[in-house]
Amino acid sequence: MPSAPDLFSYRKFWAKRFGTAAYLPTSRTEMDALGWDSCDVVLVTGDAYVDHPSFGMAVVGRVLEAQGFRVGIIAQPDWRNAVDFERLGRPNLFFGVTGGNMDSMVNRYTADRRIRSNDAYTPDDEGGKRPDRAVIVYSQRCREAFVDVPIVIGGIEASLRRIAHFDYWSEKVRRSVLLDAKADLLVYGNGERQIVEIAHRLAAGETVDKITDLRGTAFIASSIDPGWNVVDSTTVDTPGPVQSHPDPYEMKFAGPAKGATSPNEVPVQVHRREKMDRARTVLRLPSFEAVVDDPVLYAHASRVLHLETNPGNARALVQRHGGRDVWLNPPPIPLATKEIDAVFDLPYQRKPHPSYGAARIPAYEMIRFSVNIMRGCFGGCTFCSITEHEGRIIQSRSEGSILREIEQIRDQVPGFTGHISDLGGPTANMYRLACKSREIEAACRKPSCVYPGICPNLNTDHAPLIQLYRKARALPGIKKITIGSGLRYDLAVRSPEYVKELVTHHVGGYLKIAPEHTEGGPLSKMMKPGMGAYDKFKELFDKFSKEAGKEQYLIPYFIAAHPGTTEEDMMQLALWLKRNGFRADQVQTFLPSPMATATAMYHSAKNPLRKVTRDSETVEIPKGLRIRRLHKAFLRYHDPNNWPMLREALKRMGRADLIGNGKQHLIPRYQPLGTGTQPEGRRSSVPAKPQKFRTQHTGFPRTSKPKASKARKR
Hints:
Elements: H1 28-34, E1 41-45, E2 50-51, H2 56-66, E3 71-75, E4 94-98, H3 104-108, H4 134-145, E5 151-153, H5 155-159, E6 165-167, E7 172-174, H6 177-180, E8 185-187, H7 192-203, E9 217-221, E10 229-232, E11 251-253, E12 267-269, H8 271-279, E13 281-285, H9 288-293, H10 295-307, E14 316-321, E15 324-328, H11 337-344, E16 351-352, H12 362-367, E17 370-372, E18 374-375, H13 386-390, E19 395-396, H14 399-412, E20 419-420, E21 422-424, H15 438-443, H16 463-473, E22 480-481, H17 489-492, H18 496-505, E23 510-516, H19 520-526, H20 531-547, E24 553-560, H21 567-579, E25 582-584, E26 586-589, H22 597-604, H23 625-635, H24 643-652, E27 694-696, E28 711-713
Parallel strand pairs: 1-3, 1-4, 4-5, 5-8, 10-13, 13-14, 17-21, 20-22, 23-24, 24-26, 26-27
Antiparallel strand pairs: 2-16, 6-7, 8-9, 9-15, 11-12, 14-15, 18-19, 25-28
Helix pairs in contact: 2-7, 10-22, 16-18, 18-20, 21-23
């Protein structure tokens, strides 16, 4: 694995003399109170300013402050003109722009493209406080305010749009957001390393156009230096399924020696030469114009990008947009435990900015008493963007840092009653799990460590997490710790002791897990395990719940309308739900998020998990509002409003035998009065109240925990 300087090893900027701000200033009045005449960096965000390590701009701001820079925040500015972007004056170094913790389009629209009326990252849950495509709009306003100030974009919205990407809301391929935003640099992934080095280099007098060698960034290249070896991406895509781990010490053969009778007589150890070549090799992806015109090339470009995500072996990528190249440097080096501890130990107030008064910010309320113990995910689920953004290498905090944060919550956060609502992260149980070999990890090109099965090189020991749970709940004043993050149950069953610890002490009646589907077709396109792992986990869960004398339930999450899913698959899932007595009031409909592998499937009807050609595997795509609603209706088979649609579908599928009033039937023949869209069969004399449901996206990582699904046993 390449190395990187310690995040906090830089010589501090001269402005460190001003000390630490209680809150990063959001107005000139606050700047004056701190004795500042200007800000070195101004951060613009689509979220309300909450000074908490679960909010990206607070983390970036505090990390820059720790380097000695004066950092101001413009939160949820009025984007209709440039006035609000001038409120802190001209930044000395750069503007840092993000749409917020969530993508602005996902934040505003449902999976059915309906406008949401609320925004959890805004005071009092008010909707409409940020523009569509916020990164682009904010960047343009920053440029209008101060035309000569460098603009650095980042966060989830910029990160997932770093190359040409399919945009679900316009149903077309858009070019890199770097071009539309007219920004100078794009930071992707966890941005601490990049943003710190950018600030120090600009402070040292380097111009932004010279910062082209920084991992985890993208920029516009006018030309490619002759020292680079440019390789067409179509020549490096290896056919076949996901391959086994390469041996970093493998002996390959250079060709016959002089006088040799066999071409395999001259072994040479080539891994060092290959690594050296990679450092000066850039893969040229099909151009923006090519992927717009050809969905097969789009799927190929997506596949290549996902193969180049391991910081240990990733090569630079370049993609032509008209007369310019968008250049992507390899991913950033993950933070070491010491570094991530230092990031979380910074002096956050752990509260919203005082200017919001008594206003309630739902996203803050969700994470108010929770603790993030790690970053990253090696699951590689094709519909999710955690791996693309945070990487697949787990970055875990130390026990000491986590326990200190719990004590801070206990002692400093108003309203704490002794209940920690989560010790988790992108997943609940990947803490300190990693490849057993650093050499194999650096050479690996698999998109997942747990699909199609758990890699034999993966350490699945849950002992450190068990120990953490025990120490955390032993702290004075801590009455209860529940686990709110999603559990990777195929890993959990490798450690029955962990399942027992979890079930006995850390389940608050319900535990959410995500099988996502029951059928092999869609599961293979999601890169999710089969239901055998779920059944084994449920067996352990029920056993240990009974031993603990507790009545507890699993809440399974499922996705409707995912690529590779047929009506038959959804029908079988509905039958499984009924057999097992589940009635899901919250269901997820697949949302094609930018850059996700499943989105490439959605757009191209090809499978990028394998070599993409004109004749390669075609994927079933549930497209269009009617079919997507039908798939969702199967998940909510119990809702009378869905029965007319389901009756029609079952008859068309030749499964009218599932319509009837017996236990063996999926839906009844009668229709309660006041439900459905068409009268059919016997009607009830009493109107039934329409059941409410909510659609949740799954294409983006949740930086704050959603409320647990309401499910009930029948």
